[in-house]
Design goal:
The chain is of the alpha/beta class. Helix content is 38%, strand content 18%. It has a seven-stranded parallel beta sheet with strand order 3-2-1-4-5-6-7, sandwiched between helices. It is globular, with a radius of gyration of 21 Å.
């Protein structure tokens, strides 16, 4: 099949790019003809809260990535739409994650579909954004109207699609394992690389820091008196998309000394150090759909502590791949205490659980949906 993906890819950085590139690599391995159309402009700099949108890593992809999409230029949307319309791919995949992209993606997709051949399949990170604005639903409706079928990666998103279109084809397929950050290295080497102590119980908060991810809950949990006799050490690894001072003030107020903050985007080649060095990955989210962080943890076979919000509990099974708790400091502290006291080894069950999240399942789900669109 001829498959084109429109969305984030190299030279852009982050989980969206990693997902899109890994997905297209899987299609290519299965014998399909693949291409990514990525951005010349993804976000205007005034709207981007980070330091840079671009990757510092090497491009290791062996398929075409063309920079041609400008997210804010309607004349560009028409040009790109007409070009892909003429190329007549069987499937155009669009990873949908925020309403801001709806006018761009929706216009391009409508032009492509006018060739009466190409089917538009969207993979939904979110349908309803974590940080909502009054115009979000209007923009989302515009994009939803051009989609032939949806892949949702959590039950909550699967249900949210119905709010906008009750009849559209859709399928639930969990986020596959992020296996494109290298192989495991031994814990001692990873800890040495990060300057961590092996005598400590190292826990990791990984990824961009935003309010909805609940880092403040985790910091407050560390002050729980039940944990004071355990050598817990928290590493926060990720760029802050809000003032770090908010968290520094909590740390200072609670007089916590066992926290290290790496306020930076973690390059692909460095990800393995953070995961291999830790004993437990913590996702203390206040709201969620799914998270790519869980799928990195599965790859490195690290247990997780997640809150019971969105689809996180669908991915992480309590007692098998880690802990599921309520989104508050007390509940998080109780699970941390259990981990410290019992030193449970989750490795065997993690190895079994991770088998559920293959890239073959994702490509198979997309092709099954494509077949159903032809039958409609």
């Amino acid at each position: 099949m001829k498959i084109t993906l429109i969305g984030t890819a190299y030279p852009y950085r982050g989980g969206l790019a990693s997902f899109n590139e890994r997905l297209m690599s899987q299609f290519k391995d299965e014998g399909d003809e693949v291409e990514i159309k990525t951005f010349t402009l993804q976000y205007p700099s005034i709207l981007f809260p980070g330091k840079t949108q671009f990757s510092t890593s090497e491009n290791k992809n062996d398929f075409s990535i063309e920079r041609c999409v400008n997210s804010i230029n309607p004349f560009n949307w028409i040009k790109v739409g007409k070009k892909i319309k003429k190329e007549k791919p069987d499937i155009v995949i669009i990873k949908y994650w925020m309403p801001f992209m709806s006018p761009c993606f929706g216009t391009i997709a409508r032009i492509i579909k006018s060739n009466k051949k190409t089917k538009i399949i969207a993979i939904a990170d979110n349908i309803i954004p974590h940080e909502r604005r009054f115009f979000d639903s209007w923009l989302t409706k515009y994009f939803v109207g051009c989609v032939d079928a949806w892949i949702a990666m959590s039950k909550s998103v699967f249900d949210d699609i119905e709010i906008f279109d009750k009849k559209v084809l859709r399928s639930l397929c969990f986020h596959p394992i992020f296996d494109n950050f290298g192989e495991k290295i031994d814990k001692e080497t990873a800890q040495k690389n990060l300057g961590l102590q092996s005598k400590e119980i190292n826990i990791l908060f990984f990824g961009l820091v935003r309010d909805y991810k609940g880092l403040d809950f985790l910091i407050k949990a560390l002050k729980n008196p039940a944990l004071e006799n355990y050598p817990l050490h928290l590493t926060v690894a990720g760029e802050f998309y809000e003032p770090q001072s908010k968290y520094d003030e909590i740390i200072k107020e609670l007089d916590l000394k066992n926290i290290t903050i790496h306020n930076k985007f973690i390059a692909n080649e460095d990800v393995k150090n953070y995961f291999c060095a830790c004993d437990l990955v913590v996702l203390p989210y206040k709201t969620a759909t799914q998270s790519g962080v869980t799928q990195i943890a599965f790859h490195f076979e690290k247990p997780m502590l997640v809150t019971d919000v969105g689809g996180l509990a669908e991915i992480v099974k309590h007692g098998k791949s880690g802990y599921v708790c309520q989104p508050n400091p007390q509940s998080i502290a109780e699970c941390l205490l259990d981990f410290c006291k019992n030193k449970t080894d989750f490795t065997e069950s993690l190895m079994e659980e991770k088998k559920k999240f293959s890239w073959e399942r994702m490509t198979e789900s997309i092709k099954e949906l494509y077949t159903k669109t032809l039958e409609k």
